[in-house]
Specification:
The protein has 222 residues and is an all-alpha fold. The chain contains eleven helices and no strands. The termini are far apart.
């Protein structure tokens, strides 16, 4: 009976809710979700940012009642999932090109693909790969897009690993640090996650602003 109840709770998991995912699958779920979000187009809707931050809070013993995760295994799972997912997405893009994206009917996914393409063309490979890692949906579609556009393997791997480690470990450790220093921080989890998502858009917004400013400067000089 206990086993059946536990299995039922896992099957009823809400994939859009970080706490629900962590309660059902723990550390392993973090790796799987990050792999799907960064490596498979069908995972574009998964909550990567909030999942990492909430998992960090759980390692500090907050935001989850009796549920507590171990920090070291979590960091390993987060890094492996994020890095392996991105590399997988890139390889799929090189082999399948735009076929997978063309079959999707998701307007949000296609919008993310356009933004990813713009990033690669406007900022160059290295900067685009780093910026995309911190933008939901864009980090999902940029990897196969980079593969389809034949971004050099070495260039893609170096920058996706660099940005992937900063993103996955940084958000996890930020959650852990906040959970360790602020009592009852779980009460403010939703506003905190909203702030994190907003902050993740700052690099992209900053680059767009600079691009528009430079374009206006060139027009003025003409």
């Amino acid at each position: 009976m206990t086993t059946a109840t536990h299995l039922s709770s896992q099957l009823a998991v809400n994939v859009l809710d970080a706490r629900s995912l962590l309660s059902a699958f723990g550390v392993l779920g973090v790796g799987v979700v990050l792999f799907a979000e960064t490596g498979l187009l069908i995972g574009f809707f998964l909550p990567g940012d909030s999942l990492l931050f909430t998992a960090g809070l759980l390692c500090a013993g907050t935001a989850g009642g009796s549920l507590k995760l171990s920090l070291a295994p979590l960091l390993v799972a987060a890094a492996v999932g994020a890095l392996a997912g991105s590399q997988c997405g890139y390889l799929l893009g090189r082999r399948a090109g735009g076929t997978l994206l063309a079959r999707s009917r998701s307007a949000r996914l296609h919008q993310g693909a356009r933004r990813a393409h713009e990033l690669l063309e406007r900022y160059g490979y290295a900067k685009a790969i780093v910026l995309a890692r911190f933008v939901p949906v864009v980090r999902t579609v940029l990897n196969p897009m980079a593969g389809a556009l034949r971004v050099p393997v070495r260039t893609f791997t170096v920058w996706q690993v660099t940005s992937g480690l900063v993103w996955s470990l940084g958000l996890t450790l930020a959650g852990y640090a906040l959970g360790s220093s602020v009592p009852n921080v779980d009460r403010y989890l939703l506003p905190i996650v909203a702030v994190i998502v907003a902050l993740s858009l700052i690099p992209l917004a900053s680059e767009v602003y600079r691009s528009h400013r430079d374009a206006k400067t060139k027009e003025t000089r003409r």
